[in-house]
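hey can u check if this looks right to u? its 421 residues, i copy pasted from the old doc so theres a chance i mangled smth
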Amino acid sequence: MPSKTVRILLSAVTALCTLCGCAEKADSLALTVSKENIEQRTEEIAGYLLNNDMDSVSKYLSDDAVKKELNTAADTLKKSSGSLDHVLAVQDDIRNAGYAYFNSDNGVYRVYMQYDENMYIRASSYSVQTQVTVENGNAYTQSIIAIGPSPQTDGVLTLPNSTSNPPVAILVPDSSEDTEKEYAFLAELAIGLAKQGVASIRLPLRYEVYPELAMDPYAVTLEEEYTHDIAYAIHIAETEAVNASEIYYIGHGKSALLSLGMTKNHFELHGAVVLAGSYRGYEEILLSGKENELKAQNLSDAEMDSELSAMKQAVAKIQTLDTEDTDELLLGYSADYWKQMNAYKAEKYINILSVPVLILFPEEDAEYSYETDYLPEKEMVKKKSLIRTESYKGLDHDFREADEDAISKDMINDLAEWILE
């Protein structure tokens, strides 16, 4: 039983909450978490935002710190003649959330509201909805397709006009800070393949489309970042006008680290491609990137050691997570995330492959190293009949020459020929 002092403090807090309306708020507005209640509450709050009624919105906040984003949303909607289009409820093991989509003079706005266990808003964000557009050419036809679990993202299906029942490649982006550049690379690759008779489904980065899903680093998962959407794309390929017995996974950069593991996790795949990837773990790639960044600053060895000490310790912990767990974030990710990444390390799959793999590497890649990533892997797989390797002089991470805007035709030719053989 609480001490007398504690009971007095609890009574005082209760009295204060009553005076401030806290008790009334909890009684009148608290709801059981359900998809139906999420949808209902999101629609109600969306109406208040449209009317710029922040007093009413405030009643649903678990913390006033959440109010800033919603204030911005309400002001923007007022200025741009916004109207509610629809709401979307999301309930899963990670979060309970609602999306409100508004049409306006300036495009589609999206407001995200994450709810606590009593259905009060504990986190929110506001953004302009990215609109995916596609163009068709004489040699290919493109269309937008819905990818993944709710909230869905927009993928792009590219079909060659000259070929019926073509093989299809799942094009998966690198996790890049310059997403526009990465998407342009995949779009150009998709068109290049289509011109040679290969269809493709290219995916966006879910955390780029919905950055609010990654607000809590402990909620970030490899499944949500990549693997769920990849699985959806593979199953969509089985329903489109393509050859469902010839589905290929093509990863670039970070997503290429998953390529070999994908062949074992998805029996539907006929093969996999590693574009500018590595046999090393992602944690080692991040460490190498930091080392290169510091070397460019001409630091002394002592300064380098000091700067890298904490990062090296984190890398060591990541590589022993099979035997030692931790609650701390390691290089910005949770232990669970790193366990998921560790499960996809190429070295686990090189000796148990049952489908062909193609490894293509640009020798002037600034993100991955020809000497550290490609050459050791080439040596490692040289006696593996299912694995073919090829490198390209003078090409950067996106398989372009320094003074060229277009992707290397040699790379696209090699890739298409390998798929079609």
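The radius of gyration is 25 Å.
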